[in-house]
């Protein structure tokens, strides 16, 4: 038979990055003495979807056929970026409770086809994966960790891996100024949750097969992680969204309505919008002045992002900004490079990525980058319900969602929020007093103009116990089995595909 050049064939098989291939039909009939050989490869489809396809080789000479097979196997073995042994955690209760079914039917056959061995653990309770990674898992024998579930499951994996890495390297996580050690193992995400925001914002689609193929080919995408502290005590890590005010209230209310299922988010969101609470406080932040991008850029973070590469390399060394501590909010508006914003806020959001999802394809901050060492701090001041609704609707439109007088956005490396009347150890007492004085009234009369003293911080879908927090961004702390969202126009036209990439 007469295929295209053998070297191009190897590029297709080894790279596993082919859009479409055309092969000449075999010149010899298939017989038991000349069995065909099938090679699986990755094929790009539309809307960032990947799929697995097969190509069959026919050869009349048995010795030549074995030589080809052996050469292909040797070349694939030499690809060190591809994982060979994975630790898999499955959340059987996330989303529509289809995690085990998705893994067994769609993912496990692909891992087996790629000769990837797996150790599978089905989680039995909350934080099962986190605690196992922190203490029991023998991480040295794995090439990566895969989570089958939603954003909550991914957060468990991040906390387990990052905490384990810091403990083994003697890093004190309770110190906000401490520089954390990056994790060596990559994390794969098989979407099986309710929103799967992390997967959507890093791959461009929530498809288990596509995510599994990214793991198989050994892609790698660094990602920033924020650490959250209160009074020099570590609280949590955040990889996507920190939200105070509106998003914190939505989460706090929805947690009391878990019996409603996924519909509780819509109900709580509508109720919180009608309540229209605002919260008073001060936000101090360290702006990222030595970077290429801004929150209002038209350029989006995509595969091979130049901004992430440039800013990540720049920030990997010791930065003079990193040692600066936040001034007291009583100081003037700018001191030691820090800015201070005081006022009444409907929402305070920190987006470390676009936070895009199927319902909001642009996300909270469309120009946010995955690995530039910054987070986009979005401040929404008190305004009318109508204007706030306009702001929320901008998340689903093509308009600039920051082009409003009551909205401001800053790209920062660190920030701190101090609510009004906050006094260190008495914060919890004040929160309880606020609940007693205001919460029941506002719960019964959502249209009233009064507001409770404090909101809650929504940290990647978990409620933080304190309102006063300090947040720092750790550049490229983790790596994912993905390559970022690829520019779709490059692969839309499949009319005349090349033979190989």
TrEMBL record:
Transmembrane segments: none
Gene3D superfamilies: 2.60.200.40, Probable inorganic polyphosphate/atp-NAD kinase, domain 1
Coiled-coil zones: none
Pfam families linked: CERK_C, DAGK_cat, PH_CERK
Superkingdom to which the source organism belongs: Eukaryota
GO BP annotation list: ceramide metabolic process
Domain DAGKc: 81-232
Keywords, ordered alphabetically: Signal
GO MF, any single term: ceramide kinase activity
Signal peptide location: 1-22
Protein name (record): DAGKc domain-containing protein
Source species of the chain: Oncorhynchus mykiss (Rainbow trout)
Lineage summary: Eukaryota, Metazoa, Chordata, Craniata, Vertebrata
């Amino acid at each position: 038979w007469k295929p295209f050049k053998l070297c191009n064939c190897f590029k297709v098989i080894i790279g596993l990055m082919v859009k479409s291939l055309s092969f000449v039909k075999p010149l010899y009939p298939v017989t038991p003495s000349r069995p065909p050989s099938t090679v699986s490869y990755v094929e790009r489809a539309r809307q960032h979807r990947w799929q697995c396809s097969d190509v069959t080789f026919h050869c009349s000479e048995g010795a030549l056929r074995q030589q080809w097979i052996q050469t292909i196997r040797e070349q694939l073995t030499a690809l060190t970026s591809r994982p060979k042994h994975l630790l898999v955690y499955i959340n059987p209760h996330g989303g529509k409770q289809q995690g085990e079914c998705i893994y067994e039917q769609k993912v496990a056959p692909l891992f087996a086809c790629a000769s990837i061995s797996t150790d599978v653990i089905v989680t039995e309770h909350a934080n099962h994966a986190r605690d196992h990674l922190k203490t029991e898992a023998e991480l040295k024998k794995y090439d990566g960790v895969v989570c089958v579930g939603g954003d909550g499951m991914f957060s468990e994996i991040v906390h387990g891996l990052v905490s384990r890495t810091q403990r083994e390297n003697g890093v004190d996580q309770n110190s906000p100024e401490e520089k954390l050690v990056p994790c060596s193992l990559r994390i794969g995400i098989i979407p099986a949750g309710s929103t799967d925001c992390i997967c959507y914002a890093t791959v461009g689609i929530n498809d288990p097969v596509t995510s599994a193929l990214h793991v198989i080919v050994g892609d790698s995408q660094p990602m920033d992680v924020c650490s959250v502290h209160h009074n020099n005590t570590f609280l949590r890590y955040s990889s996507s969204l920190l939200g105070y005010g509106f998003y914190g209230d939505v989460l706090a209310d929805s947690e009391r309505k878990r019996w409603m299922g996924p519909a509780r988010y819509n109900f709580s969101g509508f109720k919180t919008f009608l309540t229209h609470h605002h919260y008073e406080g001060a936000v101090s932040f360290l702006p990222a002045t030595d970077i290429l991008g801004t929150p209002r850029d038209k350029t989006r973070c995509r595969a091979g992002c130049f901004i992430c590469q440039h800013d990540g390399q720049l920030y990997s060394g010791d930065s003079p900004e990193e040692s600066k501590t936040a001034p007291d909010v009583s100081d003037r508006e700018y001191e030691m490079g820090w800015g201070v914003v005081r006022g009444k806020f409907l929402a305070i959001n920190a987006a470390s990525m676009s936070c895009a999802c199927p319902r909001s394809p642009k996300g909270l901050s469309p120009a946010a980058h995955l690995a530039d060492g910054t987070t986009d701090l979005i401040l929404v001041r008190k305004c009318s319900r109508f204007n706030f609704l306009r702001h929320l609707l901008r998340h689903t439109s093509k308009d600039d969602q920051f082009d409003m007088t009551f909205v401001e956005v800053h790209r920062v490396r660190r920030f701190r929020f101090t609510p009004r009347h906050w006094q260190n150890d008495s914060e919890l007492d004040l929160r309880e007093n606020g609940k007693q004085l205001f919460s029941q009234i506002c719960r019964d009369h959502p249209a009233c103009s009064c507001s409770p003293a404090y909101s809650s911080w929504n940290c990647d879908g978990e409620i933080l116990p304190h309102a006063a927090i300090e947040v720092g961004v750790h550049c490229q702390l983790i790596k994912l089995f993905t390559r970022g969202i690829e520019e779709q126009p490059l692969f839309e036209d499949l009319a005349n595909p090349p033979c190989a990439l």
